[in-house]
Backbone:
């Protein structure tokens, strides 16, 4: 039985970890960390867990937890883990960090986009970027620290990855127009996230400045072995869960000036995802819908080639709390402990 | 491995059966019946099941299916099963009927409220009303036909049952004001159920005439060993899933004129539900919310005693597609086959 | 031109006052009071008013405003107006108070339900309860202080009023099950009102203890000339606007034991509302929907007689921010200044 | 008094025409045309209009209506008006067509994208494309036929128009990622538009093939005096009203390689829209939200320059039923009859 601790268990991502791990046959949650609700029963904070979780919330003492747990999930604000992580802790326990602290390899980029000093840069190099479908071979029982990718990022990267990797699109033309449900904004009491402000409304935000931008660029840059600079525009949608990324890029033409065919593009997607359990490349003509993946760890991908403009429109959908956060974190944990990758993640999407 | 067939697999309740049975370790679905989509792949009708269900939809030939399956779920319109059920079929296969055909013991009442002739009344007596928490001992491997309760009904009955059973309320004063998400209206293309008609809107419907009324009255009548006549008012709410029943009844006063205390009422609820896995009586002062049970087989119940009026306000919440339909059907199936009652139903509510 | 000041202009009710008064041809808003946003442009707080309102928000100095305005609307928390109102202010300016401070004639009742001391009880008697359809003759140019009814209250009272007034129902049996959109909860940043907490969710709250209860009881008591004690249960619904009240009461039987007929009840509704512009008694068999009154000052009322139980089910729907708050306040203002009652309120409901 | 007839009065756009014209002081609606509801009272089809509209629905006999009306609005399916329009009709009455029949000047383009034959191409040249802010001087009392622009189109064009007109962006790089509320899909009973299918869901549709594409391209082509080929991707959002267009284009660099500044771009927007009542260019850093224009005729526009990619991200928001359909149609009607352009359109956006 793997003993798991969760720091930040009362945020939406933390709560989703609890939901998933509760049904994971090889895991026992030993620590529900929550700064705001110390000593309060977890099921009072999330009444859906009444009679399912009996524990009370505890402090976020990583040190103490490291002695009790085999793995710690940190679903905490940026800077938290970086501020307290030590070699001693890492020597005792594996960590899957759902924050951005160790996702970006270049400290300067992190500090610029996040506006905070990175207080433990010495672990950045060791941290594995936990996008399992791409970096699976680096996530092993020997790995100590996994930087779990962001929700927008997972969706944006996986949707374009095979084409960037194979050099089929002009990476300089990539535009990601992403739409997210509101759970991505967290459970903090902010006026902008009130029901009446979000419902029946839609807006873009963080235009040309959202923090997930450099994360996408870095990872796609590794894929294409080139610098990638993109436009990434997130939007807030009146729904609880779900991210839909609509991505545009110019296809590279063949020597004869023609565009690659649907079948050729399809073959590339199948090359990378054909055997992936959690990536479903939809059939020709089918556009992904966020509801089709709700509650599950799937990413659905579709694409259309526009002969008129020479662009490909790629679309990816996932549940931001599952594949975009907690589900992927568990997928990483499974790899860290040599379990089947989909253990505890056989979640059938819930419709409607 | 139990071989299960579903007639009406492409309605919302049928689809929920598929979702639940897909993860039930002792069941294999052998027949996805759907009159409207014969020969179409099931995953094209419900794209969330892409790469999870590979089968195509088949006809609704109960006869043929009876030879192949151990249990048949009929998630079909009223009158369908009653029109084709035969002794021969029942001799071969168990049936869990999600329609109303065998719920009401008095044929005249059925025919009056449903406005159709009952074409196989000979099976009504045999059918067990599958509200497991109440009729568990009648649902056994010897049982052939289960009438799975309606969604409003399950919620309305379970919320008031202990108090009616113990004679604590004046059954003649019972009023059930119920609110339902829109999935209860089915997947048929009706203008009234379009997004723009339902969203940002709320209404009562079927006032003093809804078909679930006599079902509630009959079952509570058995509980109280008396005639029960209620007001039942359903409302349509702009959400996908969930039923909330707010029930009002006058508490019987004690000889000294006082009302029963919170603790006395609570003890009665605990007597009936204290050991029930799927009924959660909430703590004092906590009102149920539909979101806390979403996706799960739980019913959450709370109550408040109003000293001013001498009434008790009981509140019950469930997911209409799970405990109100497919989940309860699987719970019944488990009992029919001697499996643990919660097999395949360890569904943790999804929040948010 | 009537000079109007609004204290609390940046709450949802205050913002609705701005929306309505902006199009009122006889009114000029001279003061946008907002404690939280002093010196900020109003259109930055409500971007929908960009280029429509150029003013900045000001303090809530009632004294100073009284010298500049002909009428002041106070859309403020309970206790605010009672804490600062003086004879001097009332001698200079008319006040329409959207809070509860002067609605309840019995100070003890107010102080018990609201849990605060009333600091200017000397004005309670003078204040007119501004339910125009009932108290129109008391709201005249001679009136100085109007207590604008609450949203739940307006809906609950108007729906039952004619039957209580004419003694057709047993007032002791009245139960009001009310459902409200979330704007009624205000614009304050509370976790419980976050989109992800409210969306896809429904719950009762304030069961047997909501503050609007005594207000309904008092006004219906005046109508029926008797003590009225009711059950009032509010519910939170995932929509922005709208209140639906479903009300249950036992009809008094005639000497021959029969119930009044539909036509008889209808005639009573028509007697009171037949000439009312803002109360629409729907046709037989039609149940009100909140969407049909959205954005308008209408109250829609329907009813069904249940011969089985001897009860009548009455249903009323209104927009909580319009007839339930700002629209009614303007209706009162029109009466206070001798204007046509519907001036500025010819708002056609917006559908969808 | 202008006598107005509406063909297609029971669709959502037709109903919005009724809502707006009902409050237009110079217009009387004389004909509520509705093929589906002939002889039914209009207020039974749209209960929000109960006691506001007393008329019954009538046939769609354009000939007969032409004798009675001064202006006809056709809110009808593609091909309807083109199939019955005659010189005789146009000699009697002005027509504002909300369908696409006369929007596209090149018949071949129309027939290709709409897949139907155009049956009265002789009127195409005469028809004025009724985007008032751009073609105002062609919409005069002498004009007989106005092709009212589509909802996506109005938003997409107005958002980019000044920059295309002034040659500031490379028109070949323009990508329009648009999101629409569900009322744009109409009131027809289709499964895909059921509440449970749309709610909590988001998807792209008509990718690289949506019919509004050539309309945008044509109009922007006139503006830029060049061929414009774009990517246009519409998305369905779980809200009733509102379109948000997020548009991406590469800014042309100056001779020194620098990008235009915010102020330079702003000046261009102000040049074209500074005096426009219904186009609000938001302040620096403010992104439009659909809720801010709901129920009104406004288009809100914002933009951000991304120095990293050299692109500008332009965002436009409008209410698809008002500025995207009925409001713009009334704006056109006002021009056709020499009325103030904003007559009847002083609609304050409704928030929340």
Residues:
């Amino acid at each position: 039985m793997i003993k798991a601790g969760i720091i930040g268990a009362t945020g939406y991502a933390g709560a989703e970890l609890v939901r998933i791990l509760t049904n994971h046959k090889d895991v026992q949650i030993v620590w529900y960390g929550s700064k705001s609700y110390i000593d309060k029963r977890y099921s009072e904070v999330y009444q859906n867990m009444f009679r399912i979780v009996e524990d009370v919330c505890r402090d976020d003492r990583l040190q103490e937890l490291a002695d009790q747990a085999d793995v710690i999930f940190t679903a905490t604000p940026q800077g938290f883990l970086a501020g307290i992580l030590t070699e001693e802790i890492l020597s005792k326990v594996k960590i899957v960090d759902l924050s951005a602290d160790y996702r970006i390899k270049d400290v300067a980029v992190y500090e610029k986009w996040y506006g905070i000093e990175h207080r433990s840069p010495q672990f950045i190099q060791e941290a594995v970027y936990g996008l399992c479908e791409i970096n699976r071979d680096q996530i092993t029982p020997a790995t100590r620290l996994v930087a779990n990718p962001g929700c927008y990022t997972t969706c944006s990267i996986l949707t374009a990855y095979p084409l960037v990797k194979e050099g089929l699109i002009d990476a300089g033309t990539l535009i990601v127009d992403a739409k997210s449900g509101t759970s991505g904004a967290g459970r903090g009491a902010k006026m902008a996230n009130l029901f009446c402000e979000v419902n029946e409304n839609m807006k873009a935000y963080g235009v040309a400045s959202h923090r997930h931008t450099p994360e996408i660029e870095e990872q796609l840059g590794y894929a294409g072995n080139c610098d990638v600079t993109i436009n990434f525009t997130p939007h807030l949608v009146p729904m609880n869960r779900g991210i839909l990324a609509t991505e545009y890029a110019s296809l590279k033409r063949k020597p004869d000036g023609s565009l690659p065919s649907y079948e050729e593009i399809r073959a590339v997607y199948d090359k990378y995802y054909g055997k992936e359990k959690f990536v479903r490349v939809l059939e020709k003509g089918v556009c992904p819908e966020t509801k089709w993946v709700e509650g599950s760890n799937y990413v659905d991908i579709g694409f259309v080639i526009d002969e008129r403009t020479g662009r490909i429109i790629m679309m990816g959908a996932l549940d931001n709390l599952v594949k975009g956060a907690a589900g992927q974190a568990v997928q990483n944990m499974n790899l860290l402990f040599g379990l089947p990758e989909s253990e505890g993640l056989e979640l059938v999407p819930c419709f409607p």
Remarks:
- The radius of gyration of chain D is 20 Å.
